[in-house]
Structure formats: C-alpha cells, structure tokens
C-alpha cells in the first residue's frame, strides 16, 4: 500500500506547489473563509517583524499565535511553503497509519463477537469484510489531501494546517496506545487553540479500553488511570506554558492567545456563528452570550461520552466535528480535518438519510461564499445578512451531516444487537423510531 | 434660481458655449489645461498606455497612448473628504464634440457658487473606457488589468457619485440615460429616479434604451413596447460590457450613469443651456447627500423610466428554473441509491472524473488558445489578428463537439448504465450552482443561460433519439445563444440586419467580449469559456454515452 500512498502524496504536493506559484496564492491568503485572525500568515509575519524589532509581538493586537509558533517560524520563515506542505503530508500519513491500525482492531473485535455469536442471524450483511476495509486508510489520506478546503488552507499558509497535523498525530498515538505521547500531542493541540481539551475524554476512554482497564467509575483502577493521564496532560501543558514564558520573558501571550479565543473581540466575518451575533449584541448582554456560545462547544462532551463510551474513535470524530463547527474562529481547514474521517464510516451509507441534501448544500454554500462576499464588500448591493445566511446554511449542513452519521452509527449498533429485520409481536415489519 | 435666473450669467454662458462649440478632435491637452486653469480649477493630467492583446477593429486601435485631463473644483467651506465626478469622453471626430464644451461651461458656473459641500472633479478622458479605467485604477490605487499609468498628482476625497456626458449636437430632442455597467452591475435606482424627476421638472423628453415610454399600459401594443424596452435592458446587461463611461465606476461602489443627448427628427428642440440646468440640478441634489445612495434597489429591470421590476419579482422566475435542475438531480439520486436490478460493478469515481477533466481542459483551451496563438494563426492563414482570435475561438468550440466520439475510443469499459447517471447528477448539480452564482451577480446573463441550458440538461440521456437531440443541444449551446441574441438585439433596436451582416456583427461581438475581459476585467468570457462551455460539453458527452 505504500505505492498508492506515495503517488497520492506526490500528486498532492504538486497541486499545492503549482497553486503556490500562481497568482492565486495572494488572493487565497486574503479570503476570510480560509484564514481567521488566529491563523492568518500575514499576522505571523507581522509578529516576526515585531520580534525582530525587539518589541513584544503581542503588542498592538495583531498577532494571536502562541510563542512556540513564532519561534518555529523564526527559523523556518524562508521555507514556509514547504513547512505547510509537510504539515499536510504528516497529517495524511498519520491518519493513514492510524486508520490502518484502527481497522485491524475493529476487525479483531468483530471476529471475537462473531465467534461468541453475539450477532443475530439476519444481520450478517452488516458485518464488515477485509476487502471493503482494505482501501479505507488510502481513502482517508485522499479525502484529506485532495479536499479543496485543505489545498486552499495550505496555499494560504494558514496555521490551521499545523494544528491539524498535531491533532492527527494525537489520533495516531492514541490509537497505537501510547499514553504519554497521546497526552503530549493533545497538550500541544490544546496549547495552540483551547478547544481540543474536550478530546481528553475520548482519548482516556480509548486508552483505558486498550489497556483493559474497566470503564467503571466505581473501580479504583479507572480513577487511577484518569489521574495518570491528567497528570501527564496537565503536566506537559504546564511545562509548555512556562517554556513560552521563558521564551518571550512575559506573560502577555496568555491574554493575547487564550483571552482572544475565549472573549472573541475581533468580529471579522468568517464561516462561524459568532461574528454576526456579537456584532449586533448590546454590551451588557455580551458576557452572558459569550459564556453561552463557549459552553456550547464543551457541552456535548459528557452526553456523547456516556452514549459512545464503547466506541471512542467515533466519539473522537464527533468531538472534532463539534469543535470545528462551534469554535470561535473556524476556517475551512478545520472542516477538512473531520471530513477526512468520513471514509472510515462508509459502511454506514445504507442508514444515512440526508447525505444528498447535505452534500448539495455544502457544495452550493462553498460556491456562494465568495459570490456573496463580492456582492457585499465590493459591489455594495448586498449586506452582511446575505453572507451570514450562507454561513448559517453551511453550519446547518455540517450539523446535519454530523447528526446523520451519529444516527446511522447508533442504528447499526442497534441492528447488530437486535437484528436487522425487526418484527413486531404480530409478525409484521416494525419501524425504528429515534427518540 | 439656478443657471438661468440671472440674465447676465445666462449671456456669459451662451457666449462661452458658442466659443467652445467648435468640434474638438484629438485631445488638445494644453488647451484644456489652460482653459480649466482659467476657470479656477486645480488641473492635473495623467498619461497612460496600453497594448491591447489584439487589434480592436471596431475602434481601430491597437497600441493606445493617451492623456486624461481633470480639474478639481474644491468645495469652498467643506473638508475635502467627498467628491463628485462629471466626465466627458473625448474621442476624435464628431462623436462627442459638444460634451466637453458643456463640461467647461458648467465648471465656470459652478466655480461661482458657494454651496458646494463636495469637491467636483471635471474629467476629460481620452480613448473613452481605457482612459477611464486608467484614471479610476490610479485614483483607487489598484491595478487589476495591467495597464501602465502615471500616478495622479491631485485627488479629491472618496467619490460619491459620477455622471458621464455624451453629446454630439448642440441641440437635442431628448436625453437618454444609460445604466448598465461592467458585468451587468447597475447603479442605485435612486439615480435613475433623480434623472427622471429632473427631466419632468425642466420639461425635457427623457428616454431609456433610446425609447420613449408610452402611457397606454393596458393595450397590447403599449405592453409589448414596454416588454421590448425591458428585453433591451436584459440583453445589454447580459453582455457584461459597460455601455457608457460610467460603467467602470460601479465596480468601486460609486453610483454612476451616462446621460446621452439624442437629436432625432422632432420639431421641439432643447438647447444645451437646458441640459446644463438639468445637470446643475442633479449635481446640487447629489451634493446634498449625507451618505452614499443605498436606499433604493440595486437589482432591477426597467420597462420604462417610471416603472421598474425589482429582484423580488424576477428572481422567483429564475428560482423555478433552478428547481427543475434540483428535482432532476433528486430523481437521479433516488435511481442511483435504490439497489440495481442487475448486479453490476458500481462505477468508480474515475469514470466521472475523466469527462470532467477533459471538458475543463477543452474549456481552458478555449480561454487560453485564441489570444496566445494569434501570431501562429496569422502566419499560416491570410487573416488579420482579430479574425484569427475569433476564428480560433470558434474552431476550439467546434472541436470540442468531436470529443465524445474520441474519448470513448481511448477509455474502454466506461459505458455502464450507472456511469451516465452519476455523470449527469454531477453535471446537473454543477450547472445549478453555476447558474445560481451567475444570476446573483449578473441576473440577465444567468437567466438567459438558464432558459437555454436547463431544458437541455433536464431531458438529455443516452436513450433519447440521437440526431434530433444533438441538433437541439447544439442550437441551445452558448455560441448559438449568442448568435440568436445578436439578431434579436438588432430586431429590438429596430435595425434588423441581414444574415451576412449579422454574422460579421457576431464575430465582432466575440472579439469585443474577449477584449473587454482583458481590458476591463469583464467576467463573461472566462465564465462562458471556463465554466458554461465545459458544463455543456458534459451534457454532450452524456448524449453520446455508449
């Protein structure tokens, strides 16, 4: 499988290099759908310039990246394009290896269940076979690398690509079962943008199952593992934050990075839900709604964990999707990361109900974003309501996609325990209702 | 009040205009600079040059060098933050020989008024649209078309509104307003209403599309007159070219219109001082604006100057056409998802990818080849460069028709029942999104394309009778739509042409479209070449699916 993967990598790198050389690169780097105030390359350059002048890069409310990023680019600014292409390649390869391992585990678990005869007789067509699962890792890598969203994000040199690389390395190390590395990569991802904090729960659930620790709050082993993981996670976070302090010599990266993400002062339009809402908010309600919107991102963790505690990888996918949709400054690069996971659940396609509508709406919205931006900003014939309408539609389509996959997943699990063709007590065909 | 209230001023203005009424040919830069300075304006010049991608046969120019002259009348008691522009294109010959005179007369009169709150820029641009493009690009510090211009030495504030004058005779019978700008953009309807209101007040006949409005709305002939006026506007908007010098201002969010004087065979003539009064009135109104014109509609169609059709009325018509495509897509999806009767290998992504890639490569060839290979074509064939460009475009377009027969030989094992359904689903969705985006930016273009392409897209399958459908598909293709539109436009303008003249006009329309793209950034040519034509090729491919 190495040959198709390398061919894919070569094609992906060629496309990105070709776009980088063309005149479209500057145009793409300015699009608000692709870069946000946290991830824009222009701001990284600005921060580097301020650092060279000896001034704190966080003065002037332009630069909102973490100190590690600024030091990374201090050495790599001449090779920026290669860095971002490499980040994309790392993400794809990490997801490829992770999904290969995950497939092996899924197949093994399925084999044990088949031998233990836990599946009813009529749901054999739901059982997955190695032939259908063989191409999934390659498809995952392809979905990530050849997704137009990823390509645009890479050409725009948005640091979202680096965040995606760290997150995919986290996924890889978690699936491989390496507790320490998983904690460290998660800490790096949280250090850059706060929201991956919610991925602690699926990581802990997965690693506990991997090490055969029973997931039961009444057992001491459970709490001991949680304490271990949290110690490693919070410890590395503490180390990195202190390292940042010593790198720049001051604590003003804390309000500039984390304060900025949490308090959303910059209301540049993007594909998220925050900007329009807060643009028309009265001042004395602002704190309340800010809390509501931010809690919304973290709120789904506990219910999803309770429901999906036996399938932590699907839980990770759901969490990544929730973060990408509800975070304060989303970009299309965030969307691309969770879209890359879709081939892993391709066996659910017979239970998906809305896939046609969702894909049509996502396609139409992606085409309409630049059109309505042009009509609003340049032609002056539209206004922000039109652009926000498309933003809303895009987010609704994403939510519908995620909830559709959730429904299909749960339905398949139900069928695997209760049989595929359900009959009511009098023998007629039953319908399944999701409550 | 106004220009004619004071008899002394009236006499002085008539004297000035009589002196200036000698036709100005070429561009007497020094004379203009001296005259404007004598009026008390701050005068500056700007030189520009541009080599067109191929010679323009309509206006007979290839390497264009020129100078714009503009004078700024500073507002006496206001901060210099806003400006208004009055422009007159200066072209050699009789084309616009009276407008500069009126412009200078107005400058002289405006200079003595104290109520101006905005700077007024009197611009005389050479080589009409090219000079205007150079001036606007320099004013706004952008350079989107690769023109060479010298930077502007003097500037006003941000331009709130602009009017462009076209007057070819010293007496007129009616005034025409031209609204359609680049890429079908229109100024705010308030500007057209302003013009109409002043024409009513002063008593000048006003027209739109060169046609007077009629009062008998109920009769069939009155209604059809209004429909023809509206169809003229639709045709002009769909072409995407600026129909007056004002067309380039709209891109910078500056409301602008062109006022053209028409001298027809009516008895009642209006002289230029009345036109001056009208312009003075319009400028005083624009002077009083506190914010840019945005209260009225930006998207409208006008059957007459006193009636308009807003976007809320005409968009549902387009929406219904788009729904046809979406319903067809839904139908295809349902057919694809329901389990097939015979077990066949599901077509991979590659079977859809190949026609897509080949169609878009042909579209890219249609976009790139005509201008790139004009030298090679001129060497081998006895044609001029312009003809070479146009004929190459037509040749590439026709060559694309031969594609399905050839690609099927190259790629074997492609033709399955599922295959064409997948391709048609992709093509129909692509067409729907494309037409939607086009209709939002340039409604007329989107609507005309939808009218011709949607029926074809909906019914074409490999199983319809091939020759009849092929003929229908070709007749409804973008090139033929353009040909029919040319003839239809000439009919509407009441200047019907014979087939030979129509064909030559068609070729010149193609060359003008390509030139507009390179000179001013019009989007019609790249849209048709890179997106509509490949989409049409996909349907052609489906028809010949084996």
TrEMBL record, chain A:
**Which membrane topology term applies here?**
Multi-pass membrane protein
Q: What is its main location?
A: endoplasmic reticulum
- The identity of this protein, by name, is Phosphatidylinositol glycan anchor biosynthesis, class U
Name its pathway.
Glycolipid biosynthesis; glycosylphosphatidylinositol-anchor biosynthesis
- Source domain of life: Eukaryota
Residues spanning the membrane: 68-99, 136-159, 220-251, 257-278, 285-302, 314-342, 354-379, 385-407
What GO terms fall under cellular component here?
GPI-anchor transamidase complex
Which compartments is it annotated to reside in? Endoplasmic reticulum membrane
Annotated GO biological process:
attachment of GPI anchor to protein; GPI anchor biosynthetic process
Classification via InterPro entries: PIG-U (IPR009600)
Q: Which residues belong to the signal peptide in this entry?
A: 1-17
One Pfam family assigned to this protein is PIG-U
State the species of origin. Poecilia mexicana
Keywords assigned: Endoplasmic reticulum, GPI-anchor biosynthesis, Membrane, Signal, Transmembrane, Transmembrane helix
Family assignment from sequence similarity = Belongs to the PIGU family.
TrEMBL record, chain B:
One of its GO biological process terms is: GPI anchor biosynthetic process
The record lists the membrane-crossing segments as 311-330, 350-369, 389-407, 427-460, 467-489, 523-545
Q: Would you name any one GO CC term?
A: GPI-anchor transamidase complex
Protein name per the record = GPI-anchor transamidase component GPAA1
Q: Does the keyword Membrane apply?
A: yes
Residue runs in coiled coils? none
Q: Which InterPro entries match?
A: Gaa1 (IPR007246)
Please give the subunit comment from the record: Heteropentamer. Part of the GPI-anchor transamidase complex, consisting of PIGK, PIGT, PIGS, PIGU and GAA1. Interacts with PIGK.
Query: What is the species of this protein?
Result: Poecilia mexicana
**Pathway, per Swiss-Prot/TrEMBL?**
Glycolipid biosynthesis; glycosylphosphatidylinositol-anchor biosynthesis
Q: Which PANTHER family match?
A: GLYCOSYLPHOSPHATIDYLINOSITOL ANCHOR ATTACHMENT 1 PROTEIN
Q: Does the keyword Disulfide bond apply?
A: yes
Q: What is its subcellular localisation?
A: Endoplasmic reticulum membrane
Q: Which Pfam families match?
A: Gaa1
